[in-house]
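During the reporting period the student researcher (J.K.) took over the structure-prediction task from the postdoctoral fellow and processed the backlog of single-chain submissions. One of the processed entries is reproduced below for the supervisory committee.
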Amino acid sequence: MRTFVKTMMSGVQVSKHAMSRFIARTGAEIADERTAMIAVLRAFSKARRIRFKDGYMVSRIISNQFTEADYYWVSDLVFVVTRQKPRTIVTVEKLWGKSLNRDFFLLDDEGR
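J.K. obtained the following structure tokens:
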């Protein structure tokens, strides 16, 4: 619970698109926006920052109009978060068969 509170206090915002994708990807039956936002933030609070292999990262940045993002992973979900302020979770994706240490790698707090 402490991590969840820290995430809420850190100013991370959640887009409506991210909320709808989270519901679709997890199969959660959430009826209202506030509950969806809390569910996304609660899951995000447990996520760890990752980096995909370079080729995949290059194609992602090109397809997203050269907007850089950070990626966070928990279970089989990936949270895509903007780097500019306010930091916003813009979407929630599934890993679709990608695996740790083969397709993506954990980063420490300094991004290494």
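The committee noted the following: The chain has a mean pLDDT of 82.
J.K. will present the remaining backlog at the next meeting.
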